[in-house]
Write a structure and sequence with these properties.
By secondary structure, this protein is of the alpha+beta class. The chain is about 35% helix and about 40% strand. It has one domain: Nuclear Transport Factor 2, Chain: A. It has four helices and seven strands; from the N terminus they run αβαββαββββα. Strands 1-4-5-6-7-2-3 form a seven-stranded mixed sheet, with helices on one face. It is elongated and about 65 Å long.
Amino acid sequence: MKHFFVLLLVVTLAGCTETKHSVIKTDDELTAKIQLLFDKYVDNDFNVSEFYAEDIVCKINNMEFKGYENLISGFQAHHNFLYEDINIKERYVHTNYFSNGEIWSNAWFTWIGTGKTTGNDYSNRGHFDYKWEDGKIVELLAYYSETVENTESAAFEASQNN
């Protein structure tokens, strides 16, 4: 009987150990910041340096580059050279608070716009992942079809060479 109580005590104490869980939130501050970044992109407002680390690592499909200025200049080129009537539809954003301390926000959306050179109406599904450290985005992973951007960029370049 003594062994039974020792075993019961061990099982009870083992059950009291802290178990870490990851949490997904849709109504938190970081998720709201990603929603705001989408709104600012649509509005062609790139006064967003407080959200990004200066040395952010960006991985867009199979291309990788670094730096806040490189990221923002790419977003600005969408408005300045390639598209008009840009909008983001069907947005869903949540933030993962992982048990290991990492924090990632994930966004799924449909990007739409009209080519400034071709006049084509475009629609493109996308998925972005944002890694947070010390309140700033330090890594951006972006996945979407490059067909839209390649088509409009090629038309824009051809128009500049005429």
